[in-house]
Write a structure and sequence with these properties.
Layout: E1 3-12, E2 15-24, E3 35-40, E4 52-54, H1 56-65, E5 68-69, H2 71-80, H3 98-119, H4 127-132
Length: 133
C-alpha cells in the first residue's frame, strides 16, 4: 500500500482550510485517511504561528515507514526541519507561448516600420509646383 502525506481540503467555498493527513495514494483527496498530522490555513499571514500546525513526531514516524509527501507538504516538512527539499528552477515556465511570441514580433516589426517612416527624409516638392502656388 503506497502511503502519501498530503492535504485534505476542508472549509467552505472561497475559505479553504486543509488537514495534513496520511492516506492511501488510491483514496480520494477528501476521502478516507489513516491519521491526521496537522492543519494548514492559507488565509493566515505567512508569518503567523498557527498557519501550519504539524505533529513533527508522527510525521517523522510516517516518513520512516515510507510515506511520500506531496510537494506542498514537503515544503512544510522542510521548514520543520524533517526533510531537505531541493529548490526547483524552471526557466522555461516564464517564456511566452508561440502565439504571444508571434504577436510580439509583429508589433516590433510594425513599430520598426513606423520609426523608419518617421525618420525617412521627406520628399521635397518640385520647384515648379512650389512656384505656381
Amino acid at each position: 500500500m503506497a502511503l502519501k502525506l498530503r492535504l485534505a481540503r476542508g472549509g467552505t467555498k472561497k475559505r479553504p482550510f486543509y488537514h495534513i493527513v496520511v492516506a492511501d495514494a488510491r483514496s480520494p483527496r477528501d476521502g478516507r485517511f489513516i491519521e491526521k498530522l496537522g492543519t494548514f490555513n492559507p488565509l493566515l499571514a505567512k508569518d503567523a504561528d498557527n498557519r501550519v500546525v504539524l505533529d513533527v513526531e508522527r510525521a517523522k514516524h510516517w516518513l520512516e515507514v515510507g510515506a511520500q509527501p506531496t510537494d506542498r507538504v514537503e515544503r512544510f516538512l522542510d521548514t520543520a526541519g524533517l526533510l531537505k527539499r531541493e529548490v526547483r528552477n524552471n526557466p522555461e515556465k516564464a517564456k511566452p507561448g508561440a502565439k504571444a511570441t508571434e504577436r510580439a514580433e509583429s508589433r516590433a516589426a510594425a513599430a520598426a516600420a513606423a520609426e523608419a517612416a518617421k525618420n525617412a527624409p521627406k520628399e521635397e516638392a518640385p520647384a515648379e509646383e512650389a512656384a505656381s502656388e
